[in-house]
Structure formats: C-alpha cells, structure tokens
Model the fold of this input.
Amino acid sequence: MPTKNTSPAVRPTERGRTAGGGPRERSRHGAARRRGRSERFAPYVLVAPAVLIIVALRLYPLALGVNFSFTGDGEANGTPVGLANYLELLDDPLFQTALANVGLLVLLLPVAVAIPGLLATFIFLKVPGHRIFRSVYFFPAVLSPVIVGAIFNLMLAFDGPLNEVLGTIGLGPVDWLGDPGVAKFAVVGVQIWATFGMALVVFLAGFATLDASLLDAARVDGASLRQSIWHVIIPSLSQTIQFVFVTTMIGMLTSMFGLLYVMTSGGPEGSTYLPEYYIWIQQGQMNRPALASAASTVLFLIMLVVGLLQISVLRRAGRED
Amino acid sequence: MKQRILWSAVTVLALTVAGCGSASKPASAPAESGAPAAAATKLVVWDWKSGEPYAKTYIEKAKADFAKKHPNVTVEFVPQPFEQYYTLLGTAIQSKTGPDVMMFNGGGQIRDRVDALLPIDEYVAEDKSRLAGWEAFVKEGKTYGAPVTLQGHPIYYNKALYEKAGITAPATTWDEFLANCDKLKKATGAACFALGNKEGIGPQFWLSGMGSGVLTPAEYDKWIAGERDWKSPHVKKIFEMFKETGDKKLNNEGANSTAMFTDIFSVFNTAKAAHIIGLMSDIGHWKDFGEFIGPDKVGIMLPPVVTEGATPSLPYDGGIGYAVAKWTKDPKAAADLVRSLTTTDALSSFSAEAGAIASDTTISAPQDAPVVGEIVAQLKAGKPALHVAMDSKTIDLMGRLSQKLLSGSATVDEAVEELAASDQEN
Done:
C-alpha cells in the first residue's frame, strides 16, 4: 500500500502553499462541497449494477410470476381470477401429496445428516482403509442426478440385480419403484446416496478444527467410542452439524427433480410427487401455466421459511462462537 | 476525484447496458421470424422429427415442394427434444412469439392449445379426402392441423409363441382369449400381456385397444362425440378387465415399475410376453417388433368381443401433424408449408424410412412387412381411439388410478367414479 502512505505527505504542503489566497479560498470551498456531494453519491453508483441486476432479473420476474398466479388458464388466460388457483391447489390431492412428501423429507433429514456424520467420524478415527473410503464416498457427488437415476433404475428394476440377490437369499422380490409405499423411500435413499459425499467433506472440514487433545483426554479417561462421539465429537461439531442440516434440507427440496423425472415420473400412483415436479407437469404437460405459477409461489414461500430458519440458525451458531 | 467518479459511473453504465443487452437478446430473437410486416420472408418450424436421420428425405421433399410455391420464403426447421417440446412451446405461446408452424400430437395436446392456433380449413380443403386422421386435429368443428402419420393401437401377438402353444388363430371372445393366455403360459412360460405402466400410459392403450370389443357401436360413437356415459356397465367392464389382467397375473411382473417407453417393448421383443397393445407409428410398432421376432412372426388381432353387438375395430387417429400459429405474419404461406409437409411424395418417404403408417391413404404399404397390409386393411373400418377423445387431466388421473387398480389400492367403482367426475368437470 505505498500510495496510501505517500498521499498524506503531499497534501499538507499543498494546503500550506494555497493558504491565505481570498477568492481562491472561496472557489476551493465550492469545489469541496461539490466533491462532498459526488462522494455521497459514489456508493449508490457503485452498488447500482448489483441492485439493477437483482431488481431487473430477480425481483421483477418474481413479482410478474406472483401476479400471473392470480390469473386464469386456457380460455381465462390473462383475466384475473383471484385466489382460484390457490384454492384449486389446496383441493388437488396430487399437490397435497407433494406437500406431504416435503414433510416426509423433513422427517428423514436426521437420517440424511447422520449417515455422512457417522461415516466422517469413522474416517476421522482412522478406521482401516480410511483413505480409500474418503474418496469412494465422495465419488457419487460428482455424478449428475440423471446418471444416478439411470443406474438405480437398472439396479432397482423388478427383474434387476438387487431383486436377484434378494431372491438367492430367499427373500421375495420387492417392487422398489412400483410400490407406492416403497418407492418414495427408494428415491430418498438414492438421493442421500448421491449427495452425502458433499456433507461428508463438510464434516471432515469440521473435524479438522476439532481439538484432538479433548479426544485424547476422553480416551485416557476410558471413554468408549459411543461416549466420545456423544460427549466430545457432537458438542464440538454443533456448528458443522447445523450447517449440514440446512444445506441438506435445501438440496433435498430443490434438486430432486432430476431423480424423480428419471426414476419414477412422480409415480407410482402419484406417490413420489414433489412441488417442483408438480409445477413442471402443470406447466408443460397440462398446459396450466397460471396454476403452475401459484404452485411456484407456494414453493417459494416454503423455501423462504426454510431460508429464514437457515439464517437464524447460522446466526445463532455464529453467536456461540 | 471528479474524474474518478465520472469514470466509475461510465464503467457502471457500460456494464449495466452490456448486462441488460446480453440478457434480453435471446428473448427478442424469436420475434425476428416475423419481422417484415407485409409478407413473411422466413418461416420457422418447430418439431421433434426434422432432426432425425430418417426424416431427412421427407423434409427435403417438403421444402422443395414449398419452394415451388413460395420461392422467396426461406424455411427454418428447428428440431426440439420431444421431452421438453410442450414445455418450450408453452413458453413460446405465453409470450406470443415463436414458430410459425409447429408439430403437434393429435388429440389433447393440440386441443388444449387451439387458443394459439389458426383454423386452416380454408387452406386444406383439397387434402381432406386424400388424408386420413383429421379428427384428432379438430376442435369444435374447426381444423387446426394436418395429419402426417396415423397413430393407433393394434393388439400385436407373437405368432411363434402361438404356434408353440398350438393356437391356430387369435381368440374372438374374451373367455377364449383368457383360455389362450393359459395355454401360452403353460406351453411357453410367456406372460399374456407385456404391460409397462410406470408412466401410467397402460390404461390409455388398454381402453382404446380393447374398447371396441366392449362398448356397443352407439356407445362408442357417443364417447368420441364427447357424450361419455361413465355409468354404463360396459365402461366399467373395460376397467374390470384391466384389473383382471393384474389379479390373474396375465401381465409381466412389475408392470407398475416398467416403463412403457421403451422398456416394455423389449419384453415383447424377447418373447417374454405373447401380446402387446402397441403403436402404429414412431415407436413400439410392426417395424420395431419385426426386427426382433421376425417380420412374418408379428401378427395383429382385433379385440375379443365381450359385449354382444360390439363390433371390434382398429382404433386410430391422426398421430402427429403440423399446425399454424395464430401470430404468424403470413397465414397463407404458413398453411402452404403445412400442405407441402403432407404431400403424397413427402409422406411416402416418411412412411418408408421412419416406420410409420402415413396419413395419406393413396400410398402403398412397404412390401417387406406383411403385417402392415393387415393394419392398412383395418383402417377403413377403424374408429378414433377412445382415450384420444379425453382431456389430458383426466388421462393423467387415469394413469395414477390404473396403478392403484393393479396394486389393489383402489376398486374399479372408485376409479370409474373419479374419472367420471374429472371428465365432466373438464
């Protein structure tokens, strides 16, 4: 930063040189005022691009979309229909299923967090082969959902390898993707398989900040593995765990479309619908863009609540520091 | 200092302009197609066929024919992926900019979107008698598209399996058909039906494939005309038969998790099932099956008679066709392009190369597939398919209900009741 140091050295001499001149002094005052005004505007000018982009490309389309959700479809295209679309959504058993499935995802969230957490713990505790596991676990995270879906379509097919293995050990075939009670868990399971690598990396980063002397102390005191996980590792990693909770939730709510599209198409019996998939079907297949807008608005509100929770959780975690 | 602020302001402005410019450019691009007000010099066509190698000659012939009529108009074909086609088209319709001519599936897909289309009756009057399958492109008496192919649902059977089971001719009654299924299972181990119901498309094929053997001719015609009597015991019978195939294990295993497109066709192709209600054009048809089980081993049968007085017939409609957008600047040129896309010469290329039953009734069927002759012979007595007359929302509901029927979580009564409510509402 050499310039910062040199400029104060220059200014006083300049000021000393010009001091005393009457009319010159007055014009200098005017210049200072002008400079003050332009400096006041400078921050606004500098944030303008960001604000403009957000307003023009984010907020304005959002407002248009919300506005569109209060208009009709088909023959009523463009005419205001009030809350009709929202009432239709509430009435639609398919949308109810989609929302219920969001609830199911929230309930399954602890599982989705516990799996990478446990595996990261084992890697941290240096189980034999932990180096291999570290890269193998991360591998699915680089695959696109479509590829993952296609792989599991083959694996979970009724006459697929998984059922064949089950058959050889005397268990009847399970219609993984054809039974409504099983299919949604199958898809969530695949989603967890495909994405837990990322959470695992976050956990490993959290472990890097863990005070090893605490664990050593616990070991010296004769703590069992379960006790050291419960009383040392989990409390020390509370921030990481919260972060993984929030990011996994967002991931589950917003990025399962590809898997659903490839694996179940929302079926069987509409049991694996999620709001995203519902929006796509209404927009593209049923030609109901306004209804899709209403569903999008509902999904947006859900995400808003999740996002606000996320901010408050992260803020609280930050305060504990 | 002043200069610095000026410079930053200029930079900001430049960035914003550049940002906005690049963001808005793609949106305005489609509008260019109709830029000159008087007569269009360029027509944009959207479809999902023109990119395929088998459609090359067809498109070339259509372009040549059109160039004779409108030498100054250029035509641009924009092939879209079929999976995204109606989503993309929906966006184009919403913004009222987009292609001048576009491909549609007959039935619900085009009827749901006639708001954006131009009636073309006055332009295509001459073609009406030469082409078949117009009904699928008509709504409330107005024609919105010209058919290119015919799409229908013959019941295909594997002649080799029939021979092995000692069955000489396909059944003509439902009871006889069930008895044949039994024989086939015992002799060959093959399932009676190949059914892929993952997407819920199974019941559409079933309803249309079997319907003419169950409904009386009067009921059938009324159904097509929109007066659907869901309380009729015959309508219920069609769904009872569908459930029966599940209960009696006549279908391949895991029907609800096997995709119609295209996993199920391989079940029929590998002789794991003796029958399949397939298609006539595009995919899952005589040509595909013939390549695997031999062209001479593919047979078609009419649906077995269930109700006395029913006259089984081949269900078919206009399959795909081209329509003209309402916003096109030069409707005459756009309609002429649609006519060029349905000339006898162009369609005969498409039929032979793509493996489709073309809408043109004057072209002869390919020689190497005897079953095509049988299909064409049935066209005259054929009727529109039952499911094509229904709206897409009820069709979607029927898909989900059919999965419930197969899994046993809904009864036929419940399913028919829900379908009736949805059908009458729309």
